[in-house]
Amino acid sequence: MLSNNTIALVKSTIPLLSNAGTAVTAHFYDRMFTHNPELKDIFNMSNQQSGKQHFALFNALAAYATHIDNLPVLATAVERINHKHASLNIQPHHYDIVGTHLIETLKELAPNEFTPDIEQAWREAYALLADVFITQEEGIYKTTESKQGGWRNTRTFVINETVQESAKVKSFYLRSADNKPVVGFQAGQYISVHVKPKGCDNTQIRQYSLSDVQQDKGYRISVKNQGLVSGHMHSLNVGDVVELSPPAGDFMLQQTDSPKVLISAGVGITPMMAMLESIAASKPDVKTQFLHACINSTEHSFANRVNALTNSAPNIEADIWYEQGPSQYHQGRINLTPLTLPLTNGEFYVCGPTPFMAAMKAQLLSLGVAPARILYEVFGPHESL
């Protein structure tokens, strides 16, 4: 437990953390990667270049300082980060490294504000936070490893088949190289792919939603050809191998009989396909609405499969929006207002670009949907909607 004095000292740094500019965040990461270059095999270096990770860390620390006397408020965010860290195989010593460079950065760049008393308070507070993460993440590792087909760290998989789902999205069917069973997952979760693209000095790790129910001794992911790692994935062929972390993620289809509304845009359709397939296979009586938006017909992934499911399952219906070009579907962007939705008892799942998800959440809230019934997935550094 932290003393009242420690809590007060940590809270006094909220403005410092909230206003940490690019000079502070860049200094922290430059310092850490200079002293511990091995962490470049864990951190998404593309997010380093864009600056997304920089602000995410200090925003998270500011949130921790704000709620340090009421940590249950952060439980959902902590769980989401736990799963992300588990997918990256984060270990206890990594927290020591990050904590050291965090404290030293603040001492170096804000010596007047970051007094010895505040430094000691933050050391105590960070140790408490690290212990929470380490304990919960070890629980995830042990639980996954103990299940049939489970494993810890990475496991080798072979690309068994590829299918072009649309102009930019390709599905990869991944089978365990040892031909042994693989651990199950909940629809909505993801796996992390560990690869070393041509010309890269470091291993790159990316999370991809599982886009189908479990395959025989393997999984399916569906990847949009965009960015370093996704581009590398599209260059691979049947027979090539990749290393995978076990399934993780707190964005999961709830096993209830409540009506489901699956809302996606672009490649955000991937976890929704796993959810739709799961509902069709195990809960066909659950009323389900599948709402999807994309640019045009060339970027409409899984169109035939969604049509097949809606034609074969009377409780599943789909509404599609095209932003460009004529079609038999809705035009423009998703507008929820005219639809008949289960506003009071439904579960709403949202995935797509962050601005899209923010817009969908705003529409749902304006229609009276309770915030707890709106579930969403954000890849990369966590962003609030």
Automatic annotation (TrEMBL):
It catalyses: 2 nitric oxide + NADPH + 2 O2 = 2 nitrate + NADP(+) + H(+); 2 nitric oxide + NADH + 2 O2 = 2 nitrate + NAD(+) + H(+). Residues 152-254 form the FAD-binding FR-type domain. Residues 1-138 form the Globin domain. It is an enzyme of class 1 (oxidoreductase). CDD domains: FHb-globin, flavohem_like_fad_nad_binding. Coiled coil: none annotated. The keyword Oxidoreductase applies. GO terms for molecular function: FAD binding; heme binding; metal ion binding; nitric oxide dioxygenase NAD(P)H activity; oxygen binding; oxygen carrier activity. Its EC number is 1.14.12.17. Belongs to the globin family. In the C-terminal section; belongs to the flavoprotein pyridine nucleotide cytochrome reductase family. This is nitric oxide dioxygenase.
